[in-house]
Structure formats: structure tokens, C-alpha cells
Amino acid sequence: MNTAYWNRDKETLKGDGLEILQSKRLKWTVRQAAEVPFYRDLFRSAGIAPADIQSVRDIEKIPFTTKKDLQQGYPFGFLAVPMKKVVRIHTTSGTTGKPTVVGYTRRDLDNWSELIARNLTMVGLTDDDIFQNAVNYGLFTGGLGFHYGAEKVGMTVIPSATGNTRRQIEMIDDFGVTALHCTPSYAMHIAGVAEKEGTTLPSLKTGMFGAEPWSDNMRKILEEKLGVTAYDSYGMSEMYGPGAAFECQERDGLHIWHDMYYVEIIDPDTGEVLGPGERGELVVTPLVKEAMPLLRYRTGDITMLMEDECPCGRGAKLARFSGRCDDMLVIRGINVFPSQIEHVLRSIPEVGDEFLVYVDRVNHLDEMTIDIELKREYFSGELSDLTRVQNKVVAALREALNLRTRVKLVEPESLPRYEGKAKRVVDRRGDTV
Amino acid sequence: MIAWDPNMEMMPEPELKKMQFKLLKTLVYRLYSFSNFYHERMDTHGVHPDDITSLEDLRRLPFMYKTDLRDGYPDKIFTADQEELVRYHVSSGTTGKPTVVGYTKHDLETWTESLARALTSCGLGRGDVVQVSYGYGLFTGGLGLHYGAERIGASVVPTSVGNTERQIELMQDLRVTAICCTPSYLMHIGEAAKKMGVSIKNDTHLRAAVLGAEPWSEQMRLRIEEEMGIKAYNIYGTSELSGPMFCECTEQNGIHMWSDICLVEILDPETDEPVKEGEKGEMVVTILQKEALPIIRYRTGDITSMDTSPCSCGRTHPRIARLSGRVDDMLIIRGINVFPSQVEHALLGIPAVSGHFMIEVGRIGALDTMLVRVELNPEAFSDKINDLIAIRSMVAHTLKNALNVSVDVEIAEPGSLPRFEGKAKRVIDRREY
Amino acid sequence: MDPSAYTIKQISVFSENKPGRLMAIAGALEEESINILAFSIAEANGFGVVRALVDKPDAAYKKLNAMGFMVSFTDVIAVRMRDQPGGLFEMAKLLSDAGINIEYSYAYSGRDAAVLILRVDQVENAVKAILFRGGNLMKSEDFMAIS
Predict the structure, then answer these.
(1) Are B150 and A158 within 8 A, CB to CB?
(2) Distance, in angstroms, between B384 CA and closest chain C CA?
């Protein structure tokens, strides 16, 4: 097996050595966090001082941080450094109107590229490879994150971003692309279109797929159709971006870089820390984040720490992810909260308060259809007015979610009414294709 | 900071010329030895590197045309090995195949340095928050300015294009001080902001805009500057030259063309003879430092004039005037180059429509609109409105994929569009600049 | 001349594009003994609008509304045409000469004449222009009397 490392010392650090490094970095992170008013208040109300955290064993003294907390800090409440030191800003979807802002110092960008470089090296890629990065660029962290990492390794980067599938296929063939990064569903779509175009994409050998959950069954299909070895990638903007955890060539769980992240798995209901082999919510404390330190951040993602050592020599792995502990949806790699949809619909006077979201997979791509009711007083009898409302809702949702959705007008009072907790999502996506 | 690289930017003209000659000589020898394309071109043109004995001898070298790049697709003209390439960008070609530009590490470095000088010359630097609202990905605008702004130590907000309301919100909330985008998109932002009750002048920290990728006028600059209370700078570059590279300084009196990077000629497009200084002609560019895709005497198709007198900012490099048109039928739609031949090529691939089409370009608010009217093929007619709508969406989708810009499509009756004998005039452009 | 004497109340009903909806609408009208004089369905993306001229528009409105349908009234006009080759041409020429833009239209061939139902953007002007050019525009009460 291929045993290439980008940073062998750090990647294989275990036991006491790892704990000493983690503790040292945790202390630094806690001091860094103390620059943030939110954390000063949190320490005070929890009755702790930064000096009380001497090692990772003390971490349970610190309360959790949630996505809601981050949102309330909008825009710069969580920055621990002055703006002059911030060289990049990304945003990620919030649960309602305002997004979550993530800042990066130059060192943060270096750390982020480093961890992507480790991932790419881990799956056997080198500066000889030609890498097509078919994920969104811009505010979404997937594009620029992998772009910088691949550039650090010295690969030839094709910043193809998403869309225009035929051109994506043309580039893979014409440029001899060897490695592809995208969401697993977009990879399925590419495979489907390539088949129709009559190409087997012979140059491709490595597929890196992430930003949405996918199964081992899907892996088999993707590997067969694209002729690649497929690797799972996990991450989120709060942890720099995608690629915070990544599969090695064993493809049995994801390595997370323990020198950069302290990992806990908790029972999402009680907050109790669980042991290896027990499934629960992933809680992460980044250990090297400078601009925006986070302590015990609740990711909402469900996984477990795996008990077995990995033959590749790197540290403990996370099992493949198996769901969310909240109602967040992942649509074509983009996170969507039903509360965001509600927020948008409430701002459009013609539309009633009830709605129902259907999620399907059509031609391997996620499709979100939202049923809405037109308010009676806005019915003019004219088809064109109805179409206008429909288009207006589609446009507003695209602006807010960064997603193209289908909007269906249904008859008044035909949607279910709820007392108590509303069930607004019908996810009809099967396990795989 | 006065200048990013004061020694270079303010080097006395004679020394610059000496340097240019040395660089040109090296370039020509290198290409004659290592590039089949240039070797053959020079041979058929009856010129040998030894013939280049002064800067003026540049005129003895053959031209390079956009069609050469298309014919060289994808990498026949490249003079760097695959391992040395670290990036590909792709832009529209005149038909079917796109134009591909490869970059070595050194090419990216030259590009980034050129932009670091350019952005510094418009008074930007560390402490500025720069919103990059050019498209990211294969288009050079986004990543180019991203790297440039990062180099000067600004905080970069990679918003890319679209979602205008969110752009305005972020501009306010993240205290953005400078924006890079097309001039029409900035006008659009201004209008959208007004609708949201936001005054760019009073409610944001914006103080500068770096505008390019499409022609704009002095009147437009005055309007933008007055309405938004900012300084608006004109930036120039095309992907064949690497991307946006050259910009006005705070004097706002012409675009500095870095002499150590390029050699500029202004020629009469009919006779290919140089015009007098200050007179308008086609700009022909030789990039002196480019490894992967060398460009000698490239016919840009852009019409401008040159001013070699020293600028009051102290920079000694010559300046070109605001572009005043094209020598060919290329259209620029929302910053994207579109050739009518591309539209034709795309439509010919769709059986449901005929090859008869018209392009109508206009402006709604500040944004360019492009309407393609195409005749339905009688066999494709269906009495179901949804079928006709589906054909229209399919044509729109195909054109969007081919052109990378959204177009409106109108399905016209068979036989209803004008027929041309001789040269077809398929474009009606109603925009005013 | 009172142009409003020539405007006819059309009921427009929003309906999802799925089986059984037209049956529900038609059944409701039968229950109320409402006679349908003219009728069409316009299709769009996932839904449609059922348009009908009925002898008792107010009763139809009330009934459908009570059943939960979205209903609205739209003013349309009706012109008689010769029920012979060239009848529609004459009418179309008249409308074209008068510069009247048709938003939508449907027609039926009745006992005495063919009738063209028109939805136009400016009803009053259209009524005046059609009458001025000698078009055989039907008064609302005459139209209702057909049944």
C-alpha cells in the first residue's frame, strides 16, 4: 500500500505525544478564545478561568458552543483578531436570515491548505496529478479550500466549479484529468452524462466526494461508472471548510487530524461524552484556529470514534457519517434549514404560511420541491399572475439558499396544518441512486 | 503605500526599454527553440531570432490571433510540461471549443504581482476589506483579483457573482471598503441597494471600486463616483494575457501597462501599421514573461490609444486609454465575451430549432440582457404549451452552457426572421455606454 | 352606450393539475343547477386555470369558494361571428384594425351563430372600437339568455 505522508510526524502522532501537543494547543486556543466577548462571558457564567484549562482532560469544564451562538455573534462577534489580520472571509448558511461569518488569518489559510495537502497526499496524489475541482467557489468553502490545498501540493488545478456538465466532461477528457472533487450526487450526474456522451473518462483515477452523506453502495456504483477509487470527505466552514476529515486508502472511516482538532462524541440529548464505538454527535474543538477559535462546537453530525487502529499508521478515525441530530437538509451539497425556507416565504405577502418541502433525486441530482398556497386575496384569475408569483418565490429562495428549487402552487387549505411541531419535510431520496 | 514595487514601477524609461529588449530577445530565442508553433510561424514569416536587434524589430514578428488559440486546443501551443502547470483557465472561443490558458507557478506569480501593483496604485492595501464580485472558477476575474487582493494583505470576501441582496448586506455588515466587479454590476448593486433603502454613500464603508471586463464610459464613472461617494478605477486584461492585470492609478488617467510584463503596440487594424501616439487603433500585446502559454503580438481586438508620457503619480510605464470598441463582432454581456458564431454553433446542435436566429442586446436597469430569437423547426411543433416551454428552456440551457451567460430565448415562427445574403447582421445592440 | 352592458363575468378557478379536479368543479355546478355556457382550461407549470361562462356566475362563485377553491371574476366580451368560412377572418381583421390585443380567447359554435369569447387588456376601449366598426358584440343579458 501507498504510505506517502505530507507531514509524517503530525499525521502519525499518538498517545502521550499527541495529548501533550493537543493540551498545549488547547491552552493556546482557550487564550485566543478569551479575546472573544462571547467566550469571556461563557467562562464567567461557567465559573472558569482560562488558566483552569491545563490539558485536554479539563475540556469538559467548558460549555458547548452552538450554531445559534455563532449566528448571534453576526457579523464579527467571534473574531479574536483585528480586521487587519483577517485575510479572508467566508460565510455559511445560518438557520434563518443572516449567515454565519467565518474569518481566516494568513496562518489559518496555511493550516487549511496544509490539512488538504495531507488529505490529497494520503490518497496517493502528487504534483503529477491534474485536478478538477467541480465544487462551488466563492463564499462556499469547498472551492477555494481544495484549490489552495491542491496548489500547495503542486497539482494542476482546473477550477471548473459546478454546472455545465458537458464541458466538465470535455475538460476531463481533453486535459487528461486524473482526480476529481465534487459532491457524490454530482459525480453520479457526471457519470450519467459521460455515458450518454460515449466516454468512459479513461484518465480519471481518483474521486473525492463530500459535502453530503453517501453510502457504500453508492461508492461501488461511482467507482464502477467513473473508474475511480472513491474517497469520502467531511468538513464544515466552522472547521475551516470541507476536508477536515478524510478517508485514507483503507477507505474504512475518516481520519481527522488530531493535532488540529480535538474530537469528542456526545449524546446529543444529555451532552454526556461517549466512548469509542458509541455513536453520537460530533463535537469539535479546533486547536490551531487563529481568527475564529471555537470551543466544543456542536456540529450536529452523527458519527463515532472507531476503536481499531488504522493500518496506514495515522490516528483514530471517525465512522462514516450517518445523519443529523437536527432538521438540516443537504441539497446538492448545500446546507438548508427548513427555518430558512420559512423565513423567505414569510417575507412574500402573496404566499400563505403553510408549506411542504419534498426532496427527491432526479437523474442522480437532488431536487427540492416546495408546495405553497397562494393567499385567496391575491388570486386574480389570470394565469400570468400565478406564474409571476411562482417565479418570484423561486427567485427569493435562490437568493436566500443559493439553490434552484421547484415551487408548486397548490390549492388553498390543501397543505397539512400542524399544532405543535410541524413536519414540513418529506425526504424521498432513497439510499443511493 | 505609494507603490507595491517602487523600483520597478518608477524605473526611468530608458532603463525600462533596455530591460524590455533583453526580455524580448530571450523570449524569442526561447520560443524559436522550444515552441513548434512559434518556430514554424517565424520560419514561414521569414524571421529569425537573430533579426531582433532592437525593440523596433518586434514589428518583424508574426501576429498571433484568437483562432490560433482555438486551433491549438487544448495545449498544443503550451511551452511548459504538464508537471510545471499548476492551473488552467478556460474562456469562450469563437465556436465550439473554448480557449484554454495554462499557468506555471511563475505565471501565477507574475499575474498576482501585476495585480498587487495595480491594486496598490488605486490606494488599496492591508486593512482594506475587498469584496470580489467577479465570477470565480474558470473565469479569470474572480481568482485573479482574489490572489491580488490577498497578496496586498487585504481581507478578501469572495462573494463571486449573483445574490445581489446578500452582496449588499455583506458589504454593509463586513464593512467592505472596495469592490471588484463589472461596472454594470456595480450599477445594479446601486439600484438594488436603493430598493432596500440602503445608500452606498451613507450606509457603507465603500470607498473604491475596481471595474472591468466590459466597456464603460467616463460619464458612467462620474455617475458611480457621485452616487456612491467612491473612486472608480478601470482595470484591463483578458484571459489570453493571464487575466485582469493592468489598472488605473489614483490619477485615473489611463491604465498603466507594466513594461517589464508586456509590450504594447497600437496598430491600424486595416494596414497593420502603427498609429501615431494618442491615436486610436487595435491593441496588440506581447507578454514578456509568460511560461506556459507565451503570447507574441497577440491581436486583442480591443481599440484604444497609448500615452507614453510620464504619469503624475510617478510611474513611468505607458498608459492606455479607456477601451472604445472592438474590431470584430464580439459582444460583451455582463462581463462575458460572446461571439455570434458561438450562438450559431450551439443552435445548430439543437434539432428542435432552425439555424435562423437574431440576437437582441439591451439593458434593463444596469444589467445587460441578451435575447436570442430562433425559429422553431416545424417538425418540433406541439400543441401543448408545456412542450413549447420545454423547448425554450432547453435552448436557453444549451446557450447558457455554451456561452456561460444566461440568455432569454424566444421561439419564433418558421420563416419569420430575416434572411441574409452575404454577411449576416444578426445582432441588434441597443445599449448605450 | 354603456360599455359595461357588454362585459360578461367569467369565473376563473385555480386548479392543481391532477385527476379529479375538473370533476369536482363540474359536479359542484351541477348540484347548484348552474349551466355552463362556454368553457376552457389553460395549462401552466403544475397547475391550471379553469375558465367558464355560466348562467349564474354569483352562485357559482359562492359555491366553489365555499368548497375551498380559489375563484375570481374576470371581465370578458363575446362577439358573434358568421358561422361560415371567413367568419373568424372578418372578426380577426376587425380586431386587428382596431388595434386590440387579445390576451386569450375561446369560441363555440352555437345555434344561431358562432361566438368568440375574448379577454382583452382594455375592455372599455375594445367594446367601443368593436361597436364602432360594426362588430356584433353581445350584451351580457343576451348572452345569459342563451341558456
Answers:
(1) no
(2) 9
What CATH number is given to the structural domain containing A317?
3.40.50.12780
Residue B59, C-alpha cell as written in the block: 514589428
**Closest chain C CA to residue B383:** C43
pLDDT per residue, tens digit, chain A (433 aa), is: 457 999 999 999 999 999 999 999 999 999 999 999 999 999 999 999 999 999 999 999 999 999 999 999 999 999 999 999 999 999 987 777 788 999 999 999 999 999 999 999 999 999 999 999 999 999 999 999 999 999 999 999 999 999 889 999 999 999 999 999 999 989 999 999 999 999 999 999 999 999 888 889 889 999 999 999 999 999 999 999 999 999 999 999 999 999 999 999 999 999 999 999 999 999 999 999 999 999 999 999 999 999 999 999 999 999 999 888 888 998 988 889 898 999 999 999 999 989 999 999 888 889 999 999 999 999 998 888 999 999 999 999 998 888 899 999 999 888 988 877 778 999 998 754 4
User: Nearest C-alpha of chain A: how many angstroms from B210?
Assistant: 18
Q: What is the pLDDT of residues A69-107, one digit of tens each?
A: 999 999 999 999 999 999 999 998 777 778 899 999 999
CATH topology of domain C6-74: VC0802-like (3.30.2130)
**Domain residue extents for chain C:** 6-74, 75-145
Partner A contacted by C71 (CB < 8 A) = yes
Contacts of A261 (CB under 8 A, 6+ apart): A239, A244, A284, A285, A286, A287
Q: What is the pLDDT of residues B52-66, one digit of tens each?
A: 999 999 999 999 999
Minimal CA separation from A416 to chain C, in Å: 14
Nearest one of B255, B193, B184, B256 to B224, comparing CA atoms: B184
| Contact predicate A289/A108, CB 8 Å | yes
Under an 8 A CB cutoff, do C47 and A376 touch? no
Which CATH superfamily, name and number, covers B82-328?
A: ANL, N-terminal domain (3.40.50.12780)
The beta strand positions in A110-259, using DSSP E, are 130-133, 156-158, 179-182, 206-210, 229-234, 245-247, 254-256
Domain assignment present for residue A78? The answer is: yes
**Contact between chains at C45 and B385 (C-beta distance less than 8 A):** no
In the numeric block, which cell numbers belong to residue B1?
503605500
CA end-to-end distance (rounded Å), chain C: 25
**Residue position matching grid coordinates 406564474:** A387
A143 touches chain B (CB under 8 A): yes
Chain B residues 307-326 with a CB less than 8 Å from chain A: none
Q: Which amino acid type is present at position B428?
A: I
Looking at this protein, which amino acid is placed at residue B33?
Answer: S
- For chain A, what is the total number of helices (H) and then of strands (E)? 11, 20
| Alpha-carbon distance C84 to nearest alpha carbon in chain A (angstroms) | 32
Query: What is the arithmetic mean of pLDDT over B174-181?
Result: 97
Nearest CA in chain A to B134: A138
Chain A CB contacts of B146 below 8 Å: 144
CATH class of C75-145: alpha beta
- Please name the member of B126, B158, B170 whose beta carbon is closest to the beta carbon of A84: B126
The span from the CA of A228 to the CA of A222, in Å, is 7
Cβ contacts of C44 on chain B, cutoff 8 Å: 385
Please give the ipTM for the structure prediction. Answer: 0.89
Contact B389 C43 (CB under 8 A): no
Top residue of B88, B163, B165 to mutate, by most chain A CBs within 10 Å, is B88
Of B361, B331, B365, B336, the residue nearest B430 (C-alpha): B361
Distance from CA of A131 to the nearest CA of B (A): 9
